[in-house]
Design a protein that fits this description.
Layout (H helix, E strand, L loop, with lengths): L8 H8 L3 H10 L4 E2 H8 L4 H13 L3 E6 L5 E6 L1 H4 L2 H19 L2
Antiparallel strand pairs: 1-3, 2-3
């Protein structure tokens, strides 16, 4: 079944990175593959339930791949797909804008 997407490309992008957790997960995975615990620790104040829901949604949207290793204890890793990595210029622009904004506000 084909996914229904908004007509506006900006709205489509916002649909994929619509909350702060998705953006921060993308930020962390830009550095490479991470385990669930590493992501949770890096993100700080996020519940396990919310992190799991966001990771599942991002996987469903094709932004990341979840790899489960059959071992005890279970090992699960998350890696960005090419589509996920293609959001890097957007995140870089957000870093640049945020840095400039912070400087502007601090100098007032």
């Amino acid at each position: 079944m084909k996914k229904e997407l908004p007509a506006c490309p900006v709205e489509t992008t916002l649909m994929l990175i619509s909350n702060r957790w998705n953006v921060l997960i993308l930020r962390d995975l830009m550095e490479g593959t991470k385990r669930f615990g590493e992501l949770k620790k890096s993100l700080g104040n996020i519940s396990q339930k919310v992190l799991t829901a966001n990771l599942r949604a991002m996987e469903e949207n094709g932004l990341l791949i979840r790899t489960v290793y059959a071992q005890v204890p279970p090992k699960v890793e998350y890696t960005l797909t090419d589509t996920g990595y293609s959001l890097k210029p957007i995140l870089d622009a957000m870093v640049q804008w945020g840095t400039q904004y912070k400087l502007q506000v601090q100098n007032k």
